[in-house]
Each structure stands twice: as C-alpha cells, then as structure tokens.
Amino acid sequence: MASNDDAPVGANGNGNGSATQPSLNVLAQYVKDLSFESPGAPNSLRGRDKAPGIAINVNVNANPLSEKQFDVNLTLNAKASFDQEVLFNVELVYGGVFAISGFPQEHMLPILFIECPRLLFPFARQIIAEATRNGGFPPLMLDPIDFAQMFQQKIAEDQAASQTKVS
What we know:
- There is one protein chain.
- With about 170 residues, this protein is an alpha+beta fold.
- The chain contains two helices and four strands; from the N terminus they run ββββαα.
- Strands 1-4-3-2 form a four-stranded antiparallel β-sheet.
- Strand 3 and strand 4 form a beta hairpin.
- Helix 1 crosses helix 2.
- The longest helix has 27 residues.
C-alpha cells in the first residue's frame, strides 16, 4: 500500500494552503526625468592628457501608491569636470512601480530602499551610459552601488539627528 507521507501540503508546509508566499513584483519601470548638458561643447569634446573628475550622487525615494504598491525612484547625478570647466552633467530619475506582499512590516524599508533600487540600477546605468555616449563622450559606466550600505548609513544619520534633537 502507498504511503501519504509524500503528499504535497500547503505552501508553508503545515497543511494550511491559505498562507501567502512573500512576493516582490515589478509592475512598471519608467524614466521620470532625464537631463544631459554639455555647456562647453564642442570644446569640451576634445581629447585631454588626463581623465576628468567625475562626481556621482545617488538617492532613493519610495512612496506608497496603495497598500501593496509602491513607487520607488532612483536618482543618479553625474558631473564630469576638468579644471574649472564642466564637461557634462547628466541627471536621471528612474522609477519603478513594485507590488510587494507577504513580507513582515520590519522588512519593508530594506525591501524598498535596498532590493527595489538594486533591481532598477542596471537599467538606469544603461540609460546614463547611452546619454553620455550620445552626448559625444565615452559611455559613463557606473560602478555597482551598495544600496545596503547606503541604507545603513541613512539609518545611522537619522538616528544621530534624532539624538541631537532630544539632547
């Protein structure tokens, strides 16, 4: 006789099939704002003996659209300069709409500020590279960003600011 020990049980393994698995789904991705400026062109396009300085700023914002949908915006700014001359300045706000469900509440901020921008970054990186290439410069290939470290730093700054206000 066959045993029922191998019969499938509910999603959580306890026989209760009503438990929902945590899910993170990308519903949409979009360019919210894209700006490329080369104020010194065509002079800024000439070759140079050394590489320009490039300053890069990254920011992440998240806003709820509904109980389970969130709009996450990844803002990337890159400014290349040589001496006092600005070669180019590119700004991108790249957004994504995410459906997030089944996660404990304490995991929501890390998901919104680490996992969601990590999913958006490769697409935003490609847009920045194409914008700089289309502007006449070599494509700017941004290094990977450690969104977990950014999130931890932001939490530490917020805690320090709140302690300063209390004192």
